[in-house]
Amino acid sequence: MKLLLDTHILLWSLLDPDRLTPEVRALLQDEKVEVWYSPITLWEILLLGQKARVILRPDPETFVRDMLVTVPLREAPLSGEIAIRSRNLALPHEDPADRFLIATALVYELDFATADDRILSARPCRILAC
Fold this sequence. Notes:
The chain has seven helices and five strands. 51% of the residues lie in helices and 13% in strands. Strand 4, helix 7 and strand 5 (127-129) form a beta-alpha-beta unit. It has helices at residues 7-15, 22-29, 39-50, 60-70, 80-86, 96-108, 117-122, and strands spanning 2-5, 34-37, 74-75, 111-114, 127-129. The chain is α/β, with parallel strands linked by helices. The chain has one domain: Rossmann fold (3-Layer(aba) Sandwich), CATH 3.40.50.1010. Helix 5 crosses helix 6. A five-stranded parallel β-sheet has the order 3-2-1-4-5.
């Protein structure tokens, strides 16, 4: 299985893993599961930290840099195809970060791990409910 983590799922996995279902926690620890992130996720984490909506120690930038070194994640780089796909999604909202993440999952053929009710109800790609 190849999973792209929604921003809150990546943060929960690092800061509050008990918020995830036991099945999702097990998947994230399974060496056979490829866990992916988007640069958009890093951007969102930095914004959340800078706005103090989540406490990232010692500071948001160092937290993200350390995460990239210590957590076994694969990057799904942004592309023109992702940008195009992001505008052609049937979603109930216009959140650009969500659109880029879902388009990334589609382009890279990844399951999208999320607990976002709006995305779970729309099912715009293969979803792993967390």
